[in-house]
Amino acid sequence: MIIWRLDDRAIGFSSCDKIVFGSRANMHLHVVVPELRQQGVGVACVRCSVEIYFRIFALRQLFCEPNAYNAAPNRTLQKAGFKYLKTYKTVPRPLNYHQAVTRWVMER
């Protein structure tokens, strides 16, 4: 997990799972301070997180699958340089409900 900080205060985080060292992983992202949303902060934090994940885990692909109806993370991923792959229905994690997600990928 990476904590995003601004002016010595936590403003969001990213986590990584489904890691296959040297190959691929899945990333998650959250800006937790509402007044900082839609200001480009998330894009900058995602770009930094991506660099860390690629370096530490020697990745070739990094995926992210936000809820398809949550426009903010989908826009953030697009602006950060992720490529759209598809939208499909799944249960992303054991605690989630069946939902439409959008799959994005960053490749190196």
Structural commentary:
It is a single chain. The chain is an alpha+beta fold and 108 residues long. The protein has a single domain, classed as Aminopeptidase (3-Layer(aba) Sandwich), CATH 3.40.630. The chain contains 2 helices and 6 strands. A 6-stranded mixed sheet has the order 1-2-3-4-6-5, covered by helices on one side. A hairpin with an 8-residue loop joins β5 and β6. 27% of the residues are buried. The mean pLDDT is 93.
Determine the strand fraction and express it as a percent band: 35-45%
The radius of gyration is 13 Å
Determine the CATH topology: Aminopeptidase
Low-confidence stretches: none
Major pleated sheet: 6 strands, mixed
Question: How many angstroms separate the termini?
Answer: 21 Å
Count of DSSP helices?
2
CATH H level, superfamily name: Gcn5-related N-acetyltransferase (GNAT)
